[in-house]
Design a protein that fits this description.
Shape: globular
Distance between the termini: 37 Å
Strand content: 15-25%
Structural class: alpha/beta
Largest sheet: 8 strands, mixed
Length: 467
């Protein structure tokens, strides 16, 4: 039994949905299959945009324009992906009903001037709730039995943390096994769950991949396939280094590190359910299905290269927190991270000097203001002043023009001198390291450099350790 997940570009048009349906049909010939689908490309971003416009501008004409855009996009896809007129008209009725429902919600937001996290999740859910019926219809058009299901209907039950819901119960086997036994292909909306009260939730960034992993976990799948627009995981971003190569095999821990530190093919949450049950993950290219892709499993493949990949995170800021008052004061770091957590600030990297007088963190650029405000609320105002006047935190400095580089490879574990070689190469590239962090797994070394030095640094590291 296998789970196949298709991202937004994979279902981005009628032609692509038809291609996806054929891939599913081919897999179905030899195995039971569950398909998980994202919203069509551009739709989720458009839903985010229109929900904010409905709240802030309250212009019903903009809602009308958006509804026309969504209807045309999905109708165009139906007309190409489904040949049988009867199936086509049935799917169009489903789409019409859901678009009408969406329009009412958006008008409600505009009239009330209110957009709660619950309402926002409900609006964002329509992307997947519109694409899944089209994929299921295309499968039926190819002669398969198929049914579109929402995440909750597939047994993904969450808490009420709208926007980033946590799964509290999986009833996947109970809900999907009877369909599989009757030779039906469930086409499940990714990204979406439901509370025990029946309220729609979303699973946050990477939610569709995570949905596929949850379903694979619940069904004890033999394989989870992630179909996207690249032919697997690469040694680095091909846009930065043209010599970047596809990595044939990765261990779970390597894949988690790469995903966390900028590789966009997978979300790190996807790995954990598969890793717990030892289910391999295969990353494939929908546009080039003949290419092998990357397999992620328990097996660690040691190659001649100690370093397996180099990833980057852009649009981040380095926050340096200073204060001699932090020395010997227990619980200061805990207070800092508690304050940041209460504001929903995600800390990407952490480093503390051995003198205990400074802590450095990396956060997303969009979280900088929230981070500073949370520190001020917790510790009071700060700024450069006399040591007699200073509190625990004396000053906070923000460096906006930085990027994170991560060097990953299971072969780095215990390799003597690897850190020295990495930092020598970085220095020779002309980059200055501003912060260093290494995880306890020893398969990853991450550091912060100036944004302007990123390309030269990554190219130098790739030449030295991979090319």
């Amino acid at each position: 039994m296998r789970v196949l997940k298709f991202g937004g570009t994979s279902v981005g048009s009628g032609e692509m949905i038809r291609r996806v349906a054929n891939i599913i049909k081919e897999r179905k010939e030899n195995d039971q299959v569950v398909a998980v689908v994202s919203a069509m490309s551009e739709v989720t971003n458009a839903l985010i945009d229109i929900s904010q416009k409905a709240l802030n501008i309250r212009d019903l004409n903009k809602i009308d324009d958006f509804i026309r855009f969504v209807k045309k996009k999905h109708y165009d896809a139906i007309n190409i992906a489904i040949k049988d007129e009867r199936i086509r008209e049935h799917v169009k009725k489903i789409i019409d009903n859901r678009i009408e429902e969406l329009e009412k919600v958006l008008i409600g937001v505009a009239y009330l001037g209110e957009l709660s996290p619950k309402s926002r999740d409900y609006i964002l859910s329509f992307g997947e709730r519109l694409s899944a019926p089209i994929v299921a219809g295309s499968l039926r058009d190819l002669g398969l039995k198929a049914i579109a299901l929402e995440g909750g209907e597939a047994g993904i039950i969450t808490d009420k943390n709208f926007g980033n819901a946590k799964v509290i119960k999986l009833r996947v086997k109970e809900f999907l096994s009877p369909l599989l036994e009757n030779d039906i292909v469930p086409v499940v909306t990714g990204f979406i769950g439901v509370t025990e009260d029946g309220e729609i939730t979303t699973l946050g960034r990477g939610g569709s991949d995570y949905s596929a992993a949850l379903i694979g976990y619940g069904l004890d799948a033999d394989l989870i396939e992630i179909w996207t627009d690249v032919s697997g995981v690469y040694t680095t971003d091909p846009k930065l280094v043209k010599e970047a190569k596809r990595i044939p095999r990765l261990s779970y821990i390597e894949a988690m590190e790469l995903a966390y530190f900028g590789a966009k093919v997978l979300h790190p949450r996807t790995i954990e359910p598969a890793m717990e049950k030892g289910i391999p993950i295969l990353v494939k290219n929908t546009f080039k299905p003949e290419e092998e892709g990357t397999i992620i499993s328990n097996d660690v493949e040691y190659s001649n290269n100690v370093v397996k990949a180099i990833t980057t995170i852009k649009n981040v800021a380095l926050i340096n927190i200073f204060g001699a008052g932090m020395v010997g004061v227990s619980g200061t770091a805990a207070r800092i991270f508690k304050a940041l957590g209460e504001e929903g600030v995600n800390v990407i990297l952490i480093s503390q000097g051995s003198s205990e007088t400074n802590i450095s963190i990396v956060v997303s650029e969009e979280d900088v203001e929230k981070a500073i405000n949370s520190l001020k609320r917790e510790f009071g105002s700060f700024g450069k002043r006399s040591f007699l006047e200073s509190s625990i935190i004396r000053d906070v400095e923000v460096d906006h023009d930085v990027s994170v580089v991560s060097v990953v490879g299971a072969g780095m574990r215990g390799a003597k001198g690897i850190a020295g070689e990495i930092f020598t190469t970085v220095s020779e590239s002309g980059a200055n390291i501003k912060m260093i962090a290494q995880g306890s797994s020893e398969v990853n070394i991450s550091f912060v450099i100036d944004k302007k030095d990123l390309i030269n640094c990554v190219r130098a590291l790739h030449r030295k350790f991979i090319s």
